[in-house]
Specification:
Blueprint (H helix, E strand, L loop, with lengths): L2 H38 L9 H8 L4 H10 L15 H30 L1
Helix pairs in contact: 1-4, 2-3
């Protein structure tokens, strides 16, 4: 095993960990925001989850808005057009989703390949 392989292993693990943390950040945002609203009685969210609210309010918030409303029943109502998200939003979410999935599974696939050889 040379130095390059150990560096790649370390980088793959770090990338996988980062992808898992980003995924957990978005998946746990709705329950934490709901708890903050119930506790404070206002529609204020913790500052760390303000990027989630900014995404929900933008064009790119369609899938995240669906997740908050359908899965967690947060009943976020946005006023304006009821049109679906633009094509570039869907393309971006698809690419980001595939990159996150690949980043999570890359270290495991690499390890399985090494064991087979």
């Amino acid at each position: 095993m040379n130095k390059n392989d150990t560096m790649q292993d370390w980088l793959a693990r770090l990338t996988g960990l980062f992808a898992v943390l980003v995924l957990l950040y978005f998946l746990t945002a709705p329950p934490i925001m709901m708890a903050a609203v119930k506790q404070n009685g206002a529609a204020s969210t913790p500052a760390v989850y303000q990027p989630v609210m900014s995404i929900i309010l933008s064009d790119f918030g369609g899938p995240l808005l669906w997740y908050c409303n359908s899965v967690w029943h947060m009943d976020i109502i946005l006023f304006g057009e009821e049109a679906g998200p633009p094509w570039y939003v869907l393309a971006l979410y698809s690419v980001v989703g595939l990159v996150l999935i690949a980043a999570v599974f890359f270290p495991f696939i690499r390890r399985m390949r090494r064991r087979m050889t």
